[in-house]
């Protein structure tokens, strides 16, 4: 196995920073090249399931992130009129998967990851491109505004429209539009009590969840043509049109939000799996490798898994591909299947869907937890962890 002494990470998001921290802990000299002027992520939250928290345990962040996160506790799935279709049991989920599901702002996670790196490891406003993927006999080369850099390993964490992926696999078709768009809002909502929930309508969904700092994270998704935007770019008005008559606290969230608080992004995913997640001395992580719909909440979680697994197999990239490609392909396909269910549009079909969900819920909450078997129970490839809380639970 080849030793990695010099690593370059292209992309300063969650997957890239986790990979940088994990490689740094293993003794590599790491440079993170981020195109944006800062590491500040898009203003939204991320749900971390037990699999990702175990990954963060490896780099000593698991317990700290658990303490900073809002426990995404009991809640469930609702219909637009407020009827509960199913209720979730946080204790049952934690017992089944060896830990809780938690929610925090992406910026919080990014800040804690970056703090684990040397002060000079991260370069912002540093657009990078792959010049040469290298091979066993020569290093990889990355171009930057300040010249070329060489590395034993290049980690491509440059997102769903990855330029590195196009260089490595020029014949791959790349991502496709998933058929729906999303909105996200993080705002204060004082004096409004609610249970964490996701609501499924006809071709539309909504979710509302509390953050520990008192703010609320809300998201929505709806079928829409690719590239469409609200008239006058007033996405808040579009949300009012689509969700204004849904159950509480949806109207309260919309009343508290300002137009500038609302972020909108079309959803793309990779339908045709890549032939590998590496070539030469370059490895792909996160959306660059396996962009998936957000319907399982696993995009960021799988990026963390990638990063931890890559650091473990840094000197043997075929082993990294072997460990990650089958797993992420299966999860991505499951996310697509879930999207088809929660984006149903026909009145009869959605009525049948809701009836089946309610019936299964009455039969036992464990039936719903089973959909995360093989996902939330993942464990990193090597122990002991830098932090031991979750390892002790499983």
Explain the overall architecture.
- The chain has a domain at 6-76 and 98-173 and 275-341: FAD/NAD(P)-binding domain.
- The model is unreliable at 387-394 (pLDDT under 50).
- The protein is globular and about 65 Å long.
- It has helices at residues 14-25, 50-58, 62-68, 90-97, 106-114, 163-168, 235-243, 250-256, 287-290, 299-312, 317-342, 347-363, 366-369, 389-393; strands at 6-10, 29-33, 45-48, 70-71, 75-78, 84-88, 102-105, 122-123, 129-132, 140-144, 147-151, 153-156, 176-188, 196-200, 204-210, 215-223, 263-269, 278-279, 282-284.
- With 394 residues, the protein is of the alpha/beta class.
- The longest helix is centred in the C-terminal third of the chain and has 26 residues, at 317-342.
- The chain is 35% helix and 24% strand.
- It contains 14 helices and 19 strands.
- The strands form 4 sheets. The chain has a 7-stranded mixed β-sheet, with helices on both faces. It has a 6-stranded mixed β-sheet with strand order 8-2-1-12-19-18. Strands 3-7-4 form a 3-stranded antiparallel β-sheet.
- Helix 1 (14-25) runs parallel beside helix 10 (299-312).
- A hairpin with a 4-residue loop joins strand 15 and strand 16 (215-223).
């Amino acid at each position: 196995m080849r030793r990695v002494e010099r690593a370059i990470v292209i992309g300063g998001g969650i997957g890239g920073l986790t990979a940088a921290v994990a490689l740094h802990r293993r003794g590599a000299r790491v440079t993170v090249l981020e195109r944006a002027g800062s590491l500040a992520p898009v203003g939204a939250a991320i749900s971390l399931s037990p699999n990702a928290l175990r990954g963060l345990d490896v780099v000593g962040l698991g317990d700290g992130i658990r303490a900073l996160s809002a426990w995404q506790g009991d809640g469930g799935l609702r219909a637009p009129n407020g009827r509960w279709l199913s209720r979730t049991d946080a204790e049952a989920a934690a017992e089944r998967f060896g830990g809780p599901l938690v929610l925090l702002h992406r910026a919080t996670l990014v800040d804690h990851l970056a703090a684990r790196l040397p002060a000079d490891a991260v370069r912002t406003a540093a657009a990078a491109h792959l010049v040469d993927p290298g091979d066993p006999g020569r290093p990889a080369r990355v171009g930057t505004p300040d010249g070329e850099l060489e590395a034993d390993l290049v980690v491509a964490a440059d997102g769903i429209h990855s330029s590195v992926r196009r260089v490595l696999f020029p014949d791959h078709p790349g991502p496709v539009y998933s058929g729906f768009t999303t909105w996200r809002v993080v705002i204060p909502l004082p004096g409004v009590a609610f249970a964490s929930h996701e609501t499924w309508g006809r071709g539309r969904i909504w979710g509302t969840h509390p953050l520990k700092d008192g703010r609320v994270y809300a998201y929505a998704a709806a079928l829409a043509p690719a590239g469409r935007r609200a008239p006058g770019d007033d996405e808040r008005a579009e949300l009012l049109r689509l969700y204004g008559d849904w159950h509480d606290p949806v109207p309260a969230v919309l009343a508290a939000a300002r137009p500038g608080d609302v972020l909108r992004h079309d959803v793309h995913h990779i339908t045709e799996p890549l032939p590998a997640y590496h070539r030469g001395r370059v490895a792909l992580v996160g959306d660059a490798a396996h962009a998936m719909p957000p319907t399982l909440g696993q995009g960021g979680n799988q990026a963390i898994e990638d990063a931890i697994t890559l650091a473990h197999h840094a000197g043997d990239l075929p082993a990294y591909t072997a460990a990650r490609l089958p797993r992420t392909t299966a999860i991505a396909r499951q996310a697509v299947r879930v999207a088809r269910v929660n984006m149903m549009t026909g009145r009869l079909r959605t009525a049948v869907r809701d009836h089946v969900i309610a019936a299964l819920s009455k039969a036992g909450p464990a039936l719903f937890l089973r959909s995360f078997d093989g996902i939330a129970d993942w464990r990193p490839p090597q122990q002991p962890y830098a932090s031991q809380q979750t390892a002790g639970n499983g």
